[in-house]
Amino acid sequence: MSQSVLVNRVSLLWPDEETRKKSKKIISLSDDSCTDIGLDKLIDEFGVTGAYRAFIKSVFTNMCEDTNVINYRLDIIDDIINNPEIELCLTNIFSIACEVERISVPESADSPYVQKLVKSFRETDLYGNCLCRCKASILKVSKKLKAQGLCKLRDIVMYLSEKFEYDDNICVAEQEDEFIKPASITLGINLDTNLRPMEAAILSVNNYKYTKAPFLNRLIDGSNDFHTNYNFHPNGESGIKNTIIKGLEEASESVVRIDSSALQLSLISDLDRMMKNTINALRTIIHRYINTYSQFFVDLKYELLFFLGAVRIIKKINCIGMKMVRPKAYPKDMKVCNIKKLYNINLAFRSEQSKPITIVQNDIAFSENSNIFILTGPNSGGKTTYINALSLIQVLFQAGMYIPAQEASLSPVDNIYTHFSSEEKKDTDYGRLGEEAHRLDYIFKHATNYSFIVLNESLASTSPSECLIMSKDIVYGLKLLNVRAIFATHLHELASTIDEINTTCEGKGAVCSLVAGAERKHSLTNADCFQRTYKVIKAPPEGLSYAKDIAESFGISYAQIKKTLHQRLMI
């Protein structure tokens, strides 16, 4: 395998190319699921658009299942978080990578070949300068690097820098014999009756110098010699590349000093034509070299953007007073999910952007005895916030990022399938209930026992009795699949049938009840007042719909409606 191929396969996201290929997803997180769990809002915090945003989203949606890869990425974040100098270094390298991408800007098709060659050498200079700065930046933090990915980055930058210093001296030498031989040209000039030049053409390019031409001098500018001695010495003080650039630029200046007449343009055109093949061959070598190795930097800047953005998010959350931690990664087949003091990261960002919001932290523990949860509680009691928090944590974990919690042990899932109650889509023939059923059917046709299924008020578009029957079948199916799942619902009757489901339904899974968000409070005006706590705990369902409390909170209890109508003088 060539060195160039090896260089372009060095990645901060993947330990090696074989792992990257194995991790290629056939089914990734769907757009509907991204919307349901609030992933797009999280990506907004990276502050990028266009191709950058698409890349960041792909890292999240192509959920990595390899714990070695996840730890490989987490190690990089550890290094950056623990060493501000490394963050500064990577920020500098990102800026340099952007410069490298801008180096090769196509020139005009009708530009003279000599000018194209000068531009090619300038591109080489810029690339070398970028490498030099990149090397200097990473050497400052070299001893602090522990993450395998960052050590690979350091090694490849050193390799490219050394290779450039070597190739910079020999890349032109491949064409040296052809290119440095020309030392003079022979002109053919037609004169008018007054012996003034009318037409001219280059007859030959010679490998010897012609230093005296009195008659030609008088015709053109009166000098006794050629303007400059253009011998190209590869071992000269500045090296062959700089000598060529200097010679070509001075030649161009000399042409300008002589005249911009049709005669001179004709001579330049002839010289350009005669040197075309040599110059093209030389430019091909230069561009092949730059393009081969600069692609590494083009790919690198996207990966750097991901890690630098991830670190900025951690710092932003810390400034709010919350915590993000490195999760412990366990193999997929262990199905581990044990999280303490988790919270919804998007809610934390809302708190930072507006007035402070009380962020309640909760726990979750999936196991063989409780891998399917039915979550009940009052409206606006925190059910949706909780299940979104769980989903985002799983996505963040598999992207190789810290998660919003105090402590966590997690196994990867092969995908997250969501079904959230939504308005009827105008472009479907199913109707709202049909649309819900269609999406649920898709889930059971694609999910495995390594998936994570998140349902939120599913089938709520039908009557309560029908919804209960259909929801019960869904839970039976989840248990049969033995999948990790959580079903947030207003159907307390569904949660009350958990014992029946566990007893009568075949399958290894076990269903448990979670209750969200309300404590009974005694009030002078209302003995059945409930206060939302947003805490989610394992407990039997309350058996109440909290309808009276909800009605009063929105001012639509019978007493409140009567009071409103009385104030309006309607009664």
Automatic annotation (TrEMBL):
Record-annotated DNA mismatch repair proteins mutS family domain positions: 370-569
Matching SUPFAM superfamilies: P-loop containing nucleoside triphosphate hydrolases (SSF52540)
InterPro entries for the chain: DNA_mismatch_repair_MutS_C, MutS, P-loop_NTPase
Gene3D superfamilies assigned: P-loop containing nucleotide triphosphate hydrolases (3.40.50.300)
Uppermost EC category: hydrolase
Keyword vocabulary terms for this entry: ATP-binding, DNA-binding, Endonuclease, Hydrolase, Nuclease, Nucleotide-binding
GO cellular component: cytosol
An annotated Gene Ontology molecular function: mismatched DNA binding
SMART domains xrefs: MUTSac
UniProt-listed GO biological process terms: mismatch repair
PANTHER family tied to this protein: DNA MISMATCH REPAIR PROTEIN MSH1, MITOCHONDRIAL, DNA MISMATCH REPAIR PROTEIN MUTS FAMILY MEMBER
Name of this chain's protein: Endonuclease MutS2
Organism: Clostridium oryzae
